[in-house]
Amino acid sequence: RLDLDQNCLTTLPEGLFVLPTLEALYVNGNCLASLPPALAQLDSLRELRLSGNKFGEAPEVVGSLHNLRALWIADNELRDLPVSWYSLTSLTELDVSGNRIEVLPARIAQLPQLQELTLDRNPSLQEPPPTVAALGVDAVRGWFVAQNGESV
Which parts of the chain span the membrane according to its record (predicted)? Predict the structure, then answer.
């Protein structure tokens, strides 16, 4: 595990990308607005904590971290989640609380291993309704099924 929390980082250190066995990276509370494509080299990464940074857009490169199991990207300025994230089939936990997400695509509920989905403090959230989102991933899946008339 590498903990770089609260360091006022605006970019990730170059040396980070030569750690092929790194399983957990914590960069909460920095000043990151983007992530470099080189992050994809961290094949063993299972846990990524990006909360409390300056992300206006969700970093696409995260979608290439196929072994990722837990992703925290709370308290940023995200409005949506990129399509690349739907390939994170090992993801069990996703925290996107405290952002500006308005609509959560139904495809997020299709992530087969997802067990925990945190959506609170997204004041503009319309779909699924905040009352449903507060009940967890199973309720969100059920809501999408009811809306679409099919299994997600």
Answer: none
User: Range of 7's domain?
Assistant: 2-147
Say if residue 142's pLDDT is above 80: yes
Torsion angle of the four alpha carbons 80, 77, 88, 113, in this order, in degrees rounded to the nearest 10: -90
Which amino acid, one-letter code, is at 33? A
Helix %, strand %, coil % of the chain (to 5): 25, 10, 60
Question: Is residue 85 domain-resident?
Answer: yes
Predicted confidence (pLDDT) at residue 151 exceeds the cutoff of 70: no
Q: For position 68, which CATH number holds?
A: 3.80.10.10
**Per-residue pLDDT tens for 56-88?**
999 999 999 999 999 999 999 999 999 999 999
